[in-house]
Design a protein that fits this description.
Layout (H helix, E strand, L loop, with lengths): L1 H21 L9 H18 L10 H9 L3 H10 L4 H22 L4 E6 L5 E7 L2 E8 L10 H21 L1 H4 L10
Length: 185
């Protein structure tokens, strides 16, 4: 019986180690060039929608803080009543439009975005080029919106951009002859 208990203990230890190995590690560093391009594109989209110039005196970090960042109390309030504020519903398309713009700059291909989120926080963001879907993000209860720090917003945008560019490069060979619109399907 003692041998069985020891064998069981070793099995548990191995399983715990396997679970620890599956956990996320430290986050990768974001590419500063891509992060700067994302912030620049995001600020230009904010400026385009600022008809009366209320944000014109702010720095890019100030614009992002005022328009995109929520306090932890605001985030807890939206988590509590499962409703998404109108501010968040405006933020979602802007983030995906900015990511699409940076992907266009880096790849030279036309990249479109579409994003929607309903009042309960469910929706999706989509980046595509021709018939190829490059990025598809599902939003559940508004997550990851609203962001509580500028770093999280930039990391989310840069990850979308890198994922889309990787996928675009993967299918560049397939679409080289006839373009992105020629994929069968």
């Amino acid at each position: 019986m003692a041998k069985e208990a020891a064998a069981f203990g070793e099995t548990v230890v191995r399983e715990v180690r396997a679970l620890k190995n599956r956990r996320r590690g430290t986050p990768r560093e974001v590419d500063p060039e891509t992060a700067d391009a994302f912030v620049r594109r995001l600020c230009s989209l904010l400026d385009a929608g600022d008809y009366f110039g209320r944000l014109s005196s702010l720095t890019p970090q100030g614009k992002i803080a005022q328009q995109f960042l929520a306090s932890i109390a605001d985030r807890e309030q939206s988590d509590f009543n499962c409703a998404v504020s109108p501010k968040v519903r405006q933020q979602v398309p802007l983030v995906f439009q900015a990511a699409a713009g940076v992907m266009e700059e880096k790849s030279g291909a036309l990249v479109q975005s579409t994003a929607e989120i309903n009042g309960e926080g469910f929706g999706r963001g989509l980046l595509y080029s021709g018939r190829v879907i490059l990025v598809l993000k599902s939003l559940r209860a508004g997550f990851p919106f609203p962001f509580t720090s500028e770093e999280k917003l930039i990391r989310y945008g840069v990850e979308c951009i890198e994922e889309g560019l990787c996928f675009l490069n993967k299918y560049k060979e397939v679409t080289a002859l006839h373009g992105l619109l020629s994929l069968e399907g």
